Amino acid sequence: MRIDVLTLFPAMFSGPFDESIIKRAQDRGLAQVHLHNIRDFTHDRHHIVDDYPYGGGAGMVLKPEPVFEALQSVRSALVDVVPVVALMTPQGQRFEQSMAEELAKAPWLVLLCGHYEGVDERIRQHMVDREISVGDYVLTGGELPAMVVLDAVVRLIPGVMGSADSAGDESFSSGLLEYPHYTRPSDFMGWKTPDVLLSGHHAEVAKWRRRQALIRTAQRRPDLLAENPITAEEREWLAEALEEGQGLSPA
Prior knowledge:
alpha/beta, Alpha/beta knot, two-stranded antiparallel sheet, 9 helices, 9 strands
C-alpha cells in the first residue's frame, strides 16, 4: 500500500513513522509512506501558502494553488492507480474502525492535512474524495489526525500484524469492545487470573470472552449494543451481570 501525506509540517511525522508497526511495515515492503511539504509547491520567495478569507473573518485559509499543485504532483507518481484523497477536517465523517478497514483495502491513500481555518473550498469540492474527522473537537492542524488514520490503516494491511487474528479480535472489529486480557503470572499480588482461562477448554474460553465483551460493552459503550444483535442467552448474561451489580443500566 502506498500512502502520501501532504502537510505544512513534515517533520512532525518523523518520530511516529520511524518507530513500531509503521516502521516495520515499511521495512518489510508492505507499506510505502511518502511525505510532501505543501510549501514546496509555492512560487514566491516567501513560500506563502495561506491568505485572508474572502468576506472577512478571523484566521487564514490555505490557498488553492499550492495544494492543487501538490496533489497533481502526487497523483502523477502512479499513472495506473487512482488514489483515495482524504482531507483531515473536523467537518468530516467520524473516523471509526469500519472506515479504517475500508481504507486498508485501497492500494493508494493520500492524506491532506488541513491547517489554519482550513483549505480553500474549491480544493474540497474538486480534489478530495472524502473528509475525515477523528472526533468532535478542533486541533491546530490535520497532522495528528493523519497520524491516527495512518496508524489505524497500516496495521490492518495483511502481513503487518504478527498474527492474522490480532486485528479481528480487537475492540470495534466485532462491533463490541474487546474482552479482558491476562498473562503470566496467573497470581499477581493475590489478584488471580480467571480459572476458565487456565482450563485449556477452548469452547469455554471463547464463551467467557464473548460474555466479558458483552458486559464490558454494556458498561462502557451501551450504544454499540443497539447495533449488535445478541442472542437470548447473551441477554441472560447481561441480566445476570445487572443483578450482580456490575455497573450496568437496565435496558
